[in-house]
Design a protein that fits this description.
With 598 residues, this protein is mainly α. The protein has 33 helices and two strands. A two-stranded antiparallel sheet has the order 1-2. Strand 1 and strand 2 form a beta hairpin. Helix 21 runs antiparallel to helix 22. The longest helix is centred in the C-terminal third of the chain and has 17 residues. The radius of gyration is 31 Å and the shape is globular. The chain starts with 12 loop residues before the first helix and ends in a 9-residue tail after the last helix.
């Protein structure tokens, strides 16, 4: 009887090397990839038509485009497949112009593109500015007869749909001419119509679809939700045969943005499965509405369930806190991150900085800013704007100088902050200097917001005629914000004549805005022109204009309280009014004389 031969337990290095080559394009570790590259070069496989495309794809995945291009350049006669790989690498690394250059080089070498070339190239085309490029590639597709592969016309429809209304019209023509459509063709068409806000036609396409998948339903659902049409969204959601986590999250997001947090919470609680995105949506929704208790409770639940936060979640929650002034939750997030091994990116630190600045805690904001090891232009813009808005003009301008010393180039947002700093600090001459230096020294053309800042600065400083001249010298039409700013300055300095001229312009832009009439009425009252006050009031009454009550909000014990004039809805309103009366007596005793506005 023969003795069985035992299989060897060792594997040759050649075999291991070949196995690694099979999945080389999936390698995302740059150190391992460089080791493999050295072995490939040693084995003289760097020009192999099977190995080279995989190596280019791997370098692309590792964001090492210089090495990918070097690999490509070592091939003496690259084929279409190799060119396609490099085009795709450029597109995936957000280098659309280089992708197009590679395509043109391929043509100059006499190589014909195939059905993979154009879908890769078309991914580099998005936005209305890309419409002509998409049309050019469409012409090429027709020339080479590549319509037979449905993947090519589908890519064209998708790219056209990202180019605004004109692009969507071109997509519809192409869609109508297609002989063989699949579900992707229909989804791309519906997605394009949703992007341009044509939900009626998008729904028609949806209803005509011979076959729908989850993407079809979710695209239509997303369109309704983003448009605030939650009635149609809910009806569609009820009909949906196979809801997934995207469907549920879309509905929660839609109701949150519509302000219906009760319905958003109901759907959130009913979700069969929740992920980081759905938790982020509901917490941010409560935070945006100033509902601190609910937002903090849910954030605590996220921590209890040991959900790992990513940058997107933290930024979304902090942005919501910044918009609503909900500093309590913002501090809670900051504190909890400090207790973990969370690695702060510049984007997260910018969100923290923005939250503290917008909530008025400039001490905390400066603490975050000074602790940043890596700042970008956004970081500088946030801190300069924050200091400017809260009355620290000197500090804002000092940081502007420091920013330039550290090699950062100011942009248009920077100058909005700088001019605001001059406005709130009353630095008129400095503001004029920076305004004129914008384009001359920094190449930043003043936009409407910069003119608005300057008119505000001059108006507050009493230089109304100068502000009026600047307004008429603007290269663009002044909007209602700029006219309103000038009217506010007229009120501050009781310039009746100029105020009347400004009001005439404002009425053309905002005929039903009651605030404008209220300001001019106060200007007349300050000048004791009671007849004009009465005329304005009659004019408001005849046009049916009513000035809504102003509202104030304050955060106390993780809850935001909002008040309007004569408001009695707050449960402690009696005590609040008693305190106001008591404060009024103290003010009178201190010699304060109330200024009455009519």
């Amino acid at each position: 009887m023969s003795t069985p031969i035992r299989a060897p337990t060792w594997v040759s290095k050649r075999r291991l090397f070949e196995e690694k080559l099979i999945d080389l394009q999936k390698c995302s570790n740059i150190n391992q990839l460089k080791q493999m590259h050295a072995q490939i070069f040693k084995a003289n496989l760097h020009q192999d038509p099977f190995v080279a495309p995989k190596l280019i794809a791997a370098f692309s995945l590792c964001r090492q485009m210089n090495l990918a291009i070097n690999t490509f350049n070592q091939i003496e006669e690259p084929n279409v497949h190799l060119y396609n790989t490099l085009i795709r690498a450029h597109v995936n690394n957000f280098q659309p112009s280089q992708a197009l250059s590679t395509f043109l080089e391929m043509q100059s070498r006499g190589l014909y593109p195939d059905n993979f070339t154009y879908p890769f190239l078309l991914k580099a085309c998005s936005g209305q500015s890309s419409l002509k490029l998409v049309q050019m590639l469409h012409t090429h597709v027709e020339k080479f007869g590549l319509y037979s592969d449905v993947f090519v016309p589908n890519s064209l429809i998708d790219s056209y749909s990202k180019c605004g209304s004109h692009g969507v019209n071109a997509a519809k023509k192409l869609f109508s001419a297609m002989e063989g459509r699949d579900v992707v063709s229909w989804n791309s068409m519906i997605g394009g119509l949703v992007k341009v806000g044509d939900l009626t036609e998008a729904r028609q396409f949806f209803d005509e679809m011979p076959e729908r998948d989850t993407v079809s339903w979710n695209t239509m659902l997303d369109g309704y939700s983003k448009a605030g049409d939650m009635n149609n969204a809910f009806e569609l959601f009820k009909e949906m045969p196979g809801r997934n986590i995207v469907s549920w999250s879309t509905m929660v997001s839609g109701y949150s943005k519509a302000g219906d947090m009760d319905m958003a919470r109901l759907l959130f609680d009913k979700m069969p499965v929740k992920n980081l995105v759905s938790w982020t949506i509901i917490v941010s929704g409560y935070a945006e509405k100033g509902l601190a208790k609910e937002a903090i409770d849910l954030y605590n639940q996220m921590e209890e369930y040991r959900i790992n936060f990513d940058d997107g979640t933290i930024i979304s929650i902090l942005s919501a806190c910044a918009e609503s002034g909900l500093i309590g939750l913002g501090k809670r997030v900051h504190s909890s991150l400090g207790k973990t091994s969370f690695i702060y990116s510049t984007q997260v630190l910018n969100a923290l900085l923005d939250m503290y600045a917008k909530c008025g805690n400039m001490g905390k904001a400066l603490g975050v800013f000074n602790g940043m090891t890596k700042r970008d232009i956004v970081s500088w813009n946030i801190i300069i704007q924050g200091l400017a808005m809260h009355g620290y003009g000197d500090k804002a301008l000092h940081l502007f100088s420091t920013m330039k010393e550290e090699g950062f180039k100011p942009d248009r947002v920077t100058f909005v902050g700088v001019l605001c700093a001059c406005t709130h600090a009353g630095f008129i001459d400095e503001g004029l200097h920076y305004f004129h230096a914008m384009e001359k020294d920094y190449g930043v053309t003043p936009q409407i917001e910069h003119y608005g800042c300057m008119i505000d600065l001059l108006g507050r400083g009493g230089r109304l005629k100068e502000a009026f001249r600047l307004l008429h010298c603007m290269p663009m039409e002044p909007n209602e914000i700029i006219w309103g700013t000038l009217l506010g300055a007229c009120r501050m300095h009781n310039d009746v004549g100029l105020a009347e001229e400004v009001l005439n312009q404002l009425v053309k832009l905002e005929p039903s805005e009651p605030g404008n009439y209220s300001i001019i009425s106060n200007i007349y009252a300050a000048a004791k022109d009671w007849d004009s006050v009465a005329n304005v009031r009659v004019r408001m009454k005849n046009t049916g204009i009513q000035k809504p009550s102003g509202a104030s909000a304050i955060e106390l014990d993780d809850e935001v309280h909002e008040f309007t004039v004569f408001d009695r809805t707050h449960p402690k309103s009696d005590k609040i009014y008693d305190m106001i009366s008591e404060l009024g007596l103290h003010l009178q005793q201190a010699g304060y004389i109330q200024k009455v506005h009519y």
